[in-house]
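Lab notebook, bench 4. The sequencing result for the construct came back, and we need a structural model before the next group meeting so we can plan mutations. Quick request posted to the team channel:

Model the 3D structure of this chain.
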Amino acid sequence: MGSAPVMDGRAWVMLIALSLCWGCSFLFNALGLQGFPPLTLVFLRLLVAALAMWAVVALLRLPVPRGARIWWLLIGMALLNNVVPFSLIVWGQTRIDSGLASILNASTPLWTVIVAHLTTTNEKLTANRLLGSVVGIAGVAVMLGAGGIDFSGDGMVWGELAVLGGALSYAFSTIVARRMAGTGAPLSLASGQVAVAAVIMLPATLILDQPWTLPAPGSDALLAVLGIGLISTALAYWLYFMIMQRAGATNVVLVTLLIPVTALLLGSLILGEALEPRQLLGMALIGCGLIAIDGRLLRRLRVRAG
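Done. Here's the predicted structure in token form:
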């Protein structure tokens, strides 16, 4: 049984960058939904990302993923890490706001810790990971505030459940991604995954949304598609696979604990939204959760105490 992977300094830098990329995605979704229905928005996101990523793969002359096993894994990743969660979250955002969606999405690490414990040999549930996940989710709950999730309205409750379903799908996708680690160049793997996801989304988009019948979208929606495709997908998934190879499945989903913090900070800096005391407290709890899951600081404290 191998030792559990840990986060080093470079992995933390990439994780913070990834949180910025994905933190912007909820804003891009909200803007994109002003001009496109959910499935069309998801398909365009994947199409833009796939074109950009394969252009870079060709420019750098990276090897294309080969072999039936790798492509089956890419199909699994496309479904669990793109098609299902993207569609559920974007559809959920038609019923709840982007901030609430990002906060509910932060439940991913808790599900991932449980899924990894059940399906892997070297990422078993430890006291640190359990404590860190619980503290992190508590921070998310504090940021959300008492009564923040309203189950009294059918439209809103289904939106909340859709986003939580997306979080669960992300948790399962990390197990497939773990099996892909080391099978090829991270950018090539990410490009293959996104291209497969775009192909899977195309029939559903054409049948259900009939995009040729839609009115012309505004400039904000078009810019949002470029942003979510290039920044929140192309760049983000390259970082995702790099972190996966370096630090493992459980550690990479720590990004979902940082995303609500990113969303709130972007809202404060760009939109002038005020940060409430409970949100600052929630950020502090999330930070404590990350420290507990990482474990290095706790180990150093134990050594000093010993």
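Residues 58 and 64 are 9 Å apart (CA to CA).
Will bring this to the meeting.
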